[in-house]
Write a structure and sequence with these properties.
Blueprint (H helix, E strand, L loop, with lengths): L1 H14 L11 H24 L4 H27 L5 H27 L1 H7 L2 H25 L2 H24 L2
Helix pairs in contact: 2-3, 2-4, 3-6, 4-7, 6-7
Pfam families: HsbA
Organism: Cudoniella acicularis
Keywords: Signal
């Protein structure tokens, strides 16, 4: 009787276990992720440009930053889980990142222009912390992309990363 009860319990417990589908992670997934990043960057840029120190706008910015952080982390994970990119896929990804680079530097420049507004609202340390996190997350993403790209495309990614790193350094200085 004890064995039957135990078996029944195991059977019931196993019926609640559902295997999560395995998502294929490849270059097309990474390209889709980069498109999401582009959208998140656009949203954050728009929010930053309209920011006037209002508490509700501050909350909106925080949500946009969190969404961007999540997208960067997800893109990094998908890139890391992908196999090495083919020559064509590598070129497509570099093209997408090349398009994103000025959007990122513009976002950071626009944010720098709001440093005094952010300071007046009392959120300088919060923004600086977010910038440092985004900088670190972005570096991790570039490392993952460089590891999967072709050699020549990896060199292009290093150059793009340097441009973005310089913009982050300027922003971190503006909020320090």
């Amino acid at each position: 009787m004890q064995i039957i009860s135990t078996f029944a319990l195991v059977l019931v417990a196993s019926s609640f276990t559902v295997a999560a589908p395995i998502t294929k992670r490849d270059a097309s997934t990474v390209l889709s992720d980069l498109s999401t990043l582009s959208s998140d960057i656009s949203t954050l840029t728009s929010d930053a440009l309209s920011y006037d120190g209002n508490i509700f706008q501050s909350l909106g910015l925080a949500v946009a930053v969190n969404s961007l952080e999540s997208s960067i982390t997800s893109t990094t994970s998908d890139t890391t889980s992908s196999s090495a990119f083919s020559t064509a896929d590598s070129a497509s990804i570099v093209s997408a990142v090349t398009t994103l680079t000025p959007a990122i530097t513009t976002l950071l420049s626009d944010l720098n222009a709001k440093a005094s507004t952010v300071a007046s609202a009392g959120f300088t340390s919060t923004v600086l912390s977010a910038l440092k996190t985004l900088d670190s997350d972005t570096d991790a993403l570039f490392a993952a992309l460089e590891a999967k790209a072709t050699t020549s495309d990896a060199a292009t990614l290093v150059t793009l990363q340097s441009t973005i790193d310089d913009a982050f350094l300027a922003s971190e200085a503006a909020f320090s």
